[in-house]
Amino acid sequence: MEIPFKLYPIHIIQDRYNGIYSKGDWLAISRYHEYRDSDIENDPLSDDCSARNFWLGPVPKWIGVGNTPNEALENLLSKM
Q: How far apart are CA 75 and CA 64, in angstroms?
């Protein structure tokens, strides 16, 4: 699987809330450093209410979800 350079770096982490809101155990986040430096209203890695609100809306292209690390990465790549 070839990963486009524009997605780097990609961080693959376990979902803080074990998939309760995201429907997957793992998250693949493209350009994680830019995401963490931004001030988004609802943060999927923050408090319970913010995470719930994030996943209730449309999931952005910069985050992939899966039950394994590979599934999360494949989900991210399928959005590009």
A: 5
